[in-house]
Design brief:
Radius of gyration: 17 Å
Mean pLDDT: 91
Distance between the termini: 10 Å
Number of domains: 1
Helix content: under 10%
CATH topology: 60s Ribosomal Protein L30, Chain: A
Shape: globular
Length: about 160
């Protein structure tokens, strides 16, 4: 954590990527499980995740501020282009946790249908990913009483 007092209304620290893990998820693998296994294998507990490719059997949810939770899952039927995948690996209750958001596109009747939100599940058809690892930073998720979301506690330094 920075020793300077920040004039901006954020909770943050300054860190740098210490390594970058690159790879692809094997066809048929469940995306979250495969990426979490890669994080465990590489001993990652703080990282940014990015990716793109093609998925199937996907489900997304969007945040409902009135309910202070994500709304019921919306299934994206069939095969979809994973136009953008972004997320983080951090600790939750001392265990690596993966939060992913996605933009999915698929062919509709004469147009492209686009869906976006919190990615709850997806099976890889062809997915490439990168994990930008922050080995000198600790990130822990805790439930935020205002939003009901699991948000980062003030980041620490190792």
């Amino acid at each position: 954590m920075s020793d300077r007092r920040s004039p901006v209304p954020t909770v943050h620290t300054v860190t740098r990527a210490t390594r970058v893990v690159v790879g692809r998820v094997e066809a048929g693998a469940e995306l979250h499980a495969a990426l979490l296994e890669a994080a465990r294998w590489e001993r990652i507990d703080a990282a940014a995740v990015r990716g793109q490719g093609v998925v199937e059997e996907a489900a997304l949810a969007v945040y409902d501020p009135g309910a202070r939770a994500h709304a019921a899952a919306e299934s994206v039927d069939g095969v979809a282009e994973l136009a953008s995948l972004s997320g983080t690996v951090s600790l939750r209750d001392g265990v690596p946790d993966l939060v992913l958001h996605a933009v999915l596109a698929r062919a509709g009747e004469g147009r492209t249908e686009v869906s976006a939100g919190l990615l709850l599940r997806a099976r890889a058809v062809a997915v490439e990913f990168t994990m930008e690892v922050w080995d000198e930073c600790t990130l822990d998720r805790r439930e935020d009483p205002t939003t009901g979301l699991a948000l980062w506690a003030p980041p620490g330094r190792r």
